[in-house]
């Protein structure tokens, strides 16, 4: 029974009302998540989310929560300055009985809790293009509200997450080591990434020379990390902020398109099914740019399609690296799963490359007519 597994934790958070029920939410891939219901004195119910933080993925939950609180507070202040109602728009955390937002149990597990936002949906897949537009607008708002955030206040919850140059060197080392004897017969796949190593480091280079600035980035911009209001169909809140850290807005935009505008799953084995849906590309881009046009620089907006190429290539290389290493990082369902994932993302990258000029022209057409950025 789930309750018996978490009852020792529930009593340490400052919930209101009387406990009624719990169910596990299985859609997440990292943390363990539960949805709790508490009956209030007036007969109504309040729901909460309770999560056990994965300390293998996130080794410092205290610093992780500091990141999240800093970002949430800044978004709240930005919305207040714009005279926007913040209800249901920001994650509201529940204090533990020690006054902290984290409770550490006897086994060393870290737990946190926040109010469940009702009347909205986190879609796992696109059923109509409007949802992807709203996802773009939601992630665009996230960037807009944080465009002036001092990124040096944040820690890297996963150090070097998008350091593509370092990831390439890791890949080269994995090829050379060939620890589990899988490199034979993969010359074409290995050459694929050697041929694109300069492109992969292009965002890192643009940030290093100041062409594009460092921003707060979400780093997991899948559709289901934006809550869509059931009544209005509008994006209301960006969730799952564990990977919030300094980076480039191009990464968030690129990953959203990579995941949402592909015509096939990221592990599709029939490569002929893998294309980039240009209509969905335009839909998401319209929503995203409608919010960031006054916040991001012209250079950032112009280079948004570069984010799609870099992120798709990076992920494909990470899949192949993990395959060569013996599947140590990504969960797999069968022995060649990571190789299939790598090949699928490689094909998707080729599709992106074939549409890159069209993508860039479309993004440029959306850049507002304003003075050159200072």
Architecture overview:
The protein has 374 residues and is α+β, with helices and mostly antiparallel strands. Helices cover 44% and strands 13% of the residues. The strands form 3 sheets. The protein has a 5-stranded antiparallel beta sheet with strand order 1-2-3-5-4, with helices on one face. The longest helix has 22 residues, at 304-325. The model has no long low-confidence stretch (mean pLDDT 94).
Key features of this structure:
globular, 10 strands, alpha+beta, three-stranded antiparallel beta sheet
Secondary structure elements and pairings:
Layout: H1 2-10, E1 18-25, E2 32-39, E3 45-52, H2 61-81, E4 103-104, E5 110-115, E6 120-121, H3 129-146, H4 164-177, H5 187-195, H6 197-200, H7 202-208, E7 215-217, E8 226-229, E9 235-238, E10 245-247, H8 249-260, H9 278-292, H10 298-302, H11 304-325, H12 337-354, H13 356-366
Antiparallel strand pairs: 1-2, 2-3, 3-5, 4-5, 6-8, 7-10, 8-9
